Amino acid sequence: MKLDIYQIDAFAAGPFEGNPAAVMPLTDRLDDSVLQQLAEENNLSETAFYTAQLPEDAGPHDPERPAYHLRWFTPAVEVDLCGHATLATAAQIFEDVHPDADRIQFWTRSGWLHVDRGPDGKLVMDFPAEPPVPTAGDPRIVAALGIPVRECLKATDLVFVAESEDDIASMAPDFAVISPLKVRGIVVTAASDVEGLDFVSRWFGAAAGVQEDPVTGSAHSQIAPYWADVLGRNSLVGRQLSARGGTVHCEVRGDRVHLSGAYRRYLRGTVEF
Q1: pTM (2 decimals)?
Q2: Strands in the chain per DSSP E
Q3: Residue 259: which pLDDT band, with cuts at 50, 70 and 90?
Q4: How confident is the model at residue 119 (pLDDT cuts 50, 70, 90)?
Q5: Using CA atoms, how far apart are residues 176 and 252, in angstroms rounded to an integer?
Q6: Active site amino acids
């Protein structure tokens, strides 16, 4: 069997920045075990598979706009929500399949999501907001982070608010403690000292099977509502301080968050198996 594959860097302002995602269009459904093996072989933090064949349980959508079934796999598991691979998938569809469309709709494990063309060339994703709530901090996890922690919160991920941007940039967590945790991942965030940025973050995977993700869009659907409340405004800019780095523009709108960013295409090829 042969499948097309695209590698696109999401939340990237230039080459070798942002988070690489593999995007694989499907004309026929494949077994979940095969999708997982493909994601493992691709060895990126996420592989996105999409098809025009919507499942029977897909809810109502706009019939005038393109709609696809979208799934995301890390090398270890299928996940419920992924930002950078959604942005990458929309970029490939906008450029190669529907160049005249202004919106792409995706049926996912998190319901219907849509991605719009932004006026500045960025793509804008509409995601569910997930404000984190206070939780008791596990002293062992806090110690494994190796930096002072001001607040401990919980959403899909564990969220730790650090004292400073410098702490987050320099931290070297103990992955022997973090990796076995029964949570998708850990977000560490702090207010930014840089003009034009509101907050910074890093994301470390546990159950997701990814050690450190370069730029995690879905984490911003958790931390953007937090910083909107702290800073008193709904339009925010976050920067993920991984080795590659990436910028996420956030607009908190009630129970939704609009996450936008640029992208760079890197690779197009064919997978044979």
Answers
A1: 0.94
A2: 2-10, 19-25, 47-51, 67-73, 78-79, 103-108, 111-117, 123-128, 133-134, 149-154, 158-162, 185-191, 199-205, 212-213, 235-240, 246-253, 256-261, 263-272
A3: very high
A4: confident
A5: 35
A6: 46
